[in-house]
């Protein structure tokens, strides 16, 4: 299986260290307020200057600087502007402090309430109060009264800080059940802040993060929706944090196979980021990348290609050709080339990405191993299974060394190696490996985890390849029942299982059962993916094959002609899947006694396979052998 680089938006802060001579040293307000002893005049001068510098752009920062410049009215005005225009609720503490120092404790409490509701950060407030006592000793009585007010307001939420710390440690240790229990305590406390509290939305984010780690996407979805609802109300649709949540919700839709919903959201986020940040901002490029990925999942490979090419060009321009995000774009473009049957293009790009990742990240970095994996898949697509085998054995050894034998990526490598064994006709070796993978996934992830079910499916495929159709049938039926239970009837993985079961019915001569299931899969894929999605066309192809098995060659002809036309339209005339459809149509012509038409088409398929895949590719050799 090829691996995409899925980039979720995470705000990154760049820290640049600059060495200055003593004469060039720049001292700002945040530096001078920490110095001892306090130089009142210096503080007022520097902090006022910093306030003036930031008053037209960074209102929240300006409100902080004006506070220590003793320009309290300006501090309050800037804080209010920051809250109203930028939704920066941390500024409520600044306006609260300025109001307090003006002697209005009741009004200060209102500002502190807003800060508590949305940030609930006692540590930051205690640090603020200590700075105020240091710089305004003449107002110590007022400041202590303000502290008392804050501490009284905080009392119902006093456990929050320790619970947050506990949750983070539990999640780090992968104690997900413990993390959920801690979050439940935080939820009970935070609900008292109001249903529109950003602090409450942060708790929902915690739930969604844990459920994501547990691959429980339905529960993850529930909390992502709750968080987004609060952020849209409190921050507005165009706020960066709201867009991040929208982006993450789209990813969850994708994990659930709800790619149409992901598409709507990704298009919205991209448009808003282009509007608010500009077309070349790194966050905008992340959105463009994610939209491309959704196009890919919808089978719109041509659209994905256009966008991936654009993202790559912009990242090369903005970030440079060796930046990790640029290499991720190069990787994604290569994968898309592969889906479009442009294996030669994919090969060139994957070799380039691998070389650059080895140079930039090192030979054992996880992304380097991902590139190695993708190159192995392309070798396999080109019929170079021996080359794929060498690479996959290397990847497996490195992942076992770096990640451990039971890590999910290690098990994926083991699965890919088993698949290559199968393609090389080494089905017994494939079987040993598939049984090992299934046992490990059941141990690591549990019997009903999607990865475990995928391994069960792959073992069933190996049984089928070995002609053990009865064993394959038992396992495919079990996998399908579990996928329907855990993911739902319409999830893409469920439909793949249904398709595999139908194929096994066919192998067992149960063509009527295969027909019922193939018709069901086709109808569901048309409904969920659309009539032109590659998986839908695969189902159409399989149904045509079943018609042939039942002697319904006229029906098979209609369907094969339709599949060929749609594949030519969506994938291109020379795509390997298009050539498979052409080959199938030729055999249907033969079944109908139209041998001259069949011969013309078979000769065309052979010529195109030699051109596209090479004369030694297994499919080309198959075209040569069959009359």
Automatic annotation (TrEMBL):
Alphabetical list of InterPro entries matching this protein: NLR-like (IPR053137), TPR-like_helical_dom_sf (IPR011990), TPR_rpt (IPR019734)
Keyword match Signal: yes
Annotated TPR repeat ranges: 453-486
Protein name per the record: Uncharacterized protein
Coiled coil: none
PANTHER family: AAA+ ATPASE DOMAIN-CONTAINING PROTEIN-RELATED, ATP/GTP-BINDING PROTEIN-RELATED
Lineage of producing organism: Bacteria, Pseudomonadati, Pseudomonadota, Gammaproteobacteria, Thiotrichales
Superkingdom: Bacteria
Originating organism: Thiosulfativibrio zosterae
Residues making up the signal peptide according to the UniProt record: 1-22
């Amino acid at each position: 299986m090829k691996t995409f680089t899925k980039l979720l938006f995470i705000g990154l802060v760049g820290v640049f260290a600059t060495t200055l001579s003593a004469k060039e040293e720049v001292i700002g307000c945040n530096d001078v307020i920490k110095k001892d002893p306090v130089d009142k005049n210096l503080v007022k001068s520097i902090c006022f200057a910093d306030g003036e510098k930031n008053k037209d752009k960074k209102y929240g920062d300006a409100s902080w600087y004006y506070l220590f410049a003793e320009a309290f009215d300006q501090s309050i005005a800037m804080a209010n502007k920051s809250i109203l225009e930028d939704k920066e609720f941390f500024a409520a503490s600044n306006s609260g402090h300025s109001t307090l120092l003006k002697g209005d404790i009741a009004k200060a409490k209102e500002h502190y309430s807003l800060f508590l509701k949305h940030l609930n950060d006692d540590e930051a407030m205690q640090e603020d109060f200590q700075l105020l006592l240091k710089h305004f000793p003449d107002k110590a009585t007022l400041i202590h009264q303000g502290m008392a007010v804050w501490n009284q307001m905080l009392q119902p939420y006093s456990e929050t800080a320790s619970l947050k710390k506990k949750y983070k440690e539990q999640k780090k240790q992968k104690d997900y059940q413990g993390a959920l229990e801690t979050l439940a305590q935080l939820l009970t406390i935070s609900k008292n802040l109001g249903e529109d509290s950003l602090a409450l939305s942060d708790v929902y984010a915690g739930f969604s993060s844990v459920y994501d780690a547990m691959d429980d996407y339905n529960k993850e979805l529930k909390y992502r929706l709750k968080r987004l609802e609060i952020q849209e109300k409190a921050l507005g649709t165009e706020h960066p944090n709201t867009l991040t949540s929208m982006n993450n919700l789209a990813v969850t839709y994708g994990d659930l196979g709800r790619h149409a919903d992901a598409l709507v959201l990704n298009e919205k986020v991209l448009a808003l980021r282009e509007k608010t940040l500009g077309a070349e901002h790194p966050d905008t490029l992340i959105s463009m990348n994610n939209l491309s990925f959704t196009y890919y999942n919808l089978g719109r490979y041509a659209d994905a290609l256009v966008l991936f090419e654009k993202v790559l060009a912009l990242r090369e321009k903005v970030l440079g050709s060796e930046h990790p995000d640029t290499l991720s774009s190069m990787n994604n473009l290569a994968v898309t080339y592969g889906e479009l049957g442009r294996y030669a293009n994919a090969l060139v790009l994957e070799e380039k990405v691998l070389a650059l990742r080895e140079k930039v990240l090192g030979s054992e970095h996880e992304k380097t191993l991902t590139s190695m994996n993708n190159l192995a898949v392309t070798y396999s697509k080109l019929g170079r299974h021996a080359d794929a085998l060498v690479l996959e054995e290397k990847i497996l050894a490195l992942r076992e060394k770096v990640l451990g034998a039971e890590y999910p990526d290690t098990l994926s490598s083991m699965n890919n190696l088993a698949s290559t064994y199968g393609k090389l006709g080494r089905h017994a070796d494939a079987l040993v490996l598939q049984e090992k993978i299934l046992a490990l996934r059941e141990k690591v992830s549990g019997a009903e985890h999607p990865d475990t079910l995928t391994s069960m499916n792959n073992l069933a495929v190996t049984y089928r390849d070995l002609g053990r159709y009865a064993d394959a049938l038992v396992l495919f039926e079990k996998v399908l029942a579990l996928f329907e239970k855990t993911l739902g009837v319409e999830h893409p993985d469920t439909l793949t299982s249904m398709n595999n079961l139908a194929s096994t019915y066919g192998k067992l001569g149960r063509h009527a059962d295969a027909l019922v299931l193939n018709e069901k899969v086709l109808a569901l894929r048309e409904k969920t993916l659309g009539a032109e999605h590659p998986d839908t066309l695969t189902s159409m192809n399989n149904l045509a094959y079943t018609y042939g098995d039942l002697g319904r060659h006229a029906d098979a002809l209609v369907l094969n002609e339709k599949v060929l036309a749609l594949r030519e339209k969506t994938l291109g005339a020379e795509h390997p899947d298009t050539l498979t459809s052409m080959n199938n149509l030729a055999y249907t012509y033969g079944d109908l006694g139209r041998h001259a038409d069949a011969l013309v088409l078979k000769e065309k398929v052979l010529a195109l396979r030699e051109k596209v895949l090479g004369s030694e590719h297994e499919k080309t050799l198959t075209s040569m052998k069959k009359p």
